[in-house]
Amino acid sequence: AECQWDGESLLNCSFTRISTIPEDIPPTAIVADFSYNNIKTFLCTVGRNEEWMVKHLNLSNNLISELSLTTCTNLPVLETLNLNGNAIHTLTLDTPIPAPRSKMYRIVDHLLPALKVLSIERNNLNTVPRGLGLLQSLQTVHMSSNSIQQIDPKDFQNCSQLKDIDLQNNKITKIHPDTFRDLNKLQVVVDLRENALTVPLPQMLISLNFFQLEVYLSNNAW
């Protein structure tokens, strides 16, 4: 009842103290803002059998600690997902889900097909969420101010459209030299400032395209 609807495309439920996502969201909503509330759980499909045509979803500054995106099969046009300022320690993208009418399990092969920007800043992640490569349109991922300790070679595997990675202000001590090797579209920034790197990263840097890329490495331990 306290949400504001402009009658066309903008639903603003920010600062309304809600603890769950309303089920009667206007079907024409393109922007949905649920920031600064008491939401602990977000289930994409709860109460919604039809597709949800929102493009920009803001869930920042809530109380979410665990989140699975494997059920988000009803958000075909979602472009930006803002999860900043929660308490997320587990973000699941690649868990097997039951196949329809079968006891077998299948891996989601296309997840949030239009998602371009995923922002998970100021949370409690210890690792890069597995399965980012399932987000086939992902161009920007922001994970600054978490507790990520190392970057493994498969963390950004199959992220063929990725252009911008922000890992600033984590606890990273180790980055595998092949981590960014196949990310041919990186052209904006790899931000590794304010981490715990102790040695230079020549192999990793050689594999990057310096003609298009900015790499930030200041305020590390070396």
Summarize the structure.
Helices cover 2% and strands 19% of the residues.
List keywords for this structure.
mainly beta, 16 strands, Leu-rich_rpt_typical-subtyp, 222 residues, LRR_TM_domain-containing, LRC66 protein, 2% helix, 19% strand, two-stranded parallel ribbon, leucine-rich repeat, globular, 1 helix
Describe the structure.
With 222 residues, the chain is mainly β. 2% of the residues lie in helices and 19% in strands. It has one helix at residues 202-206, and strands at 4-5, 10-12, 31-33, 56-58, 66-68, 80-82, 90-92, 97-98, 105-106, 117-119, 140-142, 150-151, 164-166, 174-175, 189-191, 214-216. The strands form four sheets. A ten-stranded mixed β-sheet has the order 1-2-3-4-6-10-11-13-15-16, with no helix packed on it. Strand 8 and strand 9 (105-106) form a beta hairpin. The longest helix has 5 residues, at 202-206. It is globular. The mean pLDDT is 85. This is LRC66 protein.
Query: Main sheet, how many strands, which sense, barrel?
Result: 10 strands, mixed
- The total of beta strands comes to 16
Low-confidence stretches are none
Q: Give helix and strand order, one letter per element, not per position.
A: EEEEEEEEEEEEEEEHE
Mean pLDDT: 85
Fraction in helix: under 10%
Total count of helical runs of at least 4 residues: 1
Pairing-aware structural class of the strands and helices?
A: mainly beta
Tell me what portion of residues adopts beta-strand conformation: 15-25%
Widest sheet: strand ordering: 1-2-3-4-6-10-11-13-15-16
The 3D shape can be described as globular
Radius of gyration, Cα only, in angstroms?
18 Å
Could you give the distance between the termini? 54 Å
